[in-house]
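debug: dumping io for the single-chain case to check the tokenizer round-trip. Nothing else runs in this session.
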Amino acid sequence: MINKHFLEEPNLVDLSKEIYKAVVQDKLEINTRFNLLSDDIYDAETINFILADGLGYENLNSTDSYLNQNVTKSINTTFPSSTNVALSSIAFMRNPIEHGLIGYYMFDKSQYGLINALNWNENNKNLLLNDFFQKQNSIWQVFKENKIHAKNFQPRNLVETPLSNFLYNVSNIIPYDDEQNLIDLMSESTILENKFNFIYYPLIDVTAHVFGVNSEEWQLEISKFEKLVKEISSISNKKTKTIISADHGLVNIDEERRHLLNYSDDLQIYGDQRSVYINGPKESVLETFSEIPGELLEQHELTYLLGEPTNEFLQSIFPDFCFLVENKNIVYPKHLSAQLKGYHGGLSKSELEIPIIELSNY
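debug: decoded output
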């Protein structure tokens, strides 16, 4: 059953706003809806925000990781529960329908057609030059304008990609190669003087996709991440607050619950494989999804999860329908065929619920 109160509940955007409010303090007013973090964040001289890709609340809770002892709350991630959607929401402190990146795949009805909104190609990355996107200010612009010393640590292979350039165009990006390189970089004297550090860590997600949640390989990545967090939390002698959360969790999908979609050219099927966006005639949609376990949402129902499209541009990328695939199932549209073990993008608690983990050295 769709949660009609989803947008009213605390989510990743709310967490980001609270963190940034503590960073900028009296230099800028940032409106927040909840009190998700401990008050001692305002005593911190340095704030680290680690986004651990794929470290869902239920996934983490299934382990004996010491990080569970430092979980203070669980909240929702964005809808859909996809990496590019979540990262954009963090960078712009806005919900997906407000910043315009609403899925792993999007479809622009007015000009660009099908778009891989994670790995933008040469043909459609120009969509990011649209005035709608260009007029948005990221938190990195705010830091720069207010002369706040902040750094953005990203895996080297993600630096200078179209999505990275859009989200972090005025940030001080520091590329890193592996965990040890990240620790070495954060130990440098100039970094230790920062007020804020953002660290994107993707390896838990990558391992869950390939080997599955709770696999031996995944458990090893959790252990590596634990050690990394201990190091980062103890590097500085300054009062340091480290907050860890995630963009989503993952679910393992058995072979017999994977559904290949056959559909005619009057349909565009895209989005995420567990929250599937669709454009086209309703009768064709119903026929295509007739044997797939799940629930079809009309546009007005989708607004409970995404919000209302408020201008012509947002209407051009807003889907006609959304099919929510039942938990433990997944679909394969024509443009996707990779056979992975773990997936996300849907509405299950395993995918949507993310932890807030707080550590400090004071």
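debug: round-trip ok. The chain has a mean pLDDT of 95.
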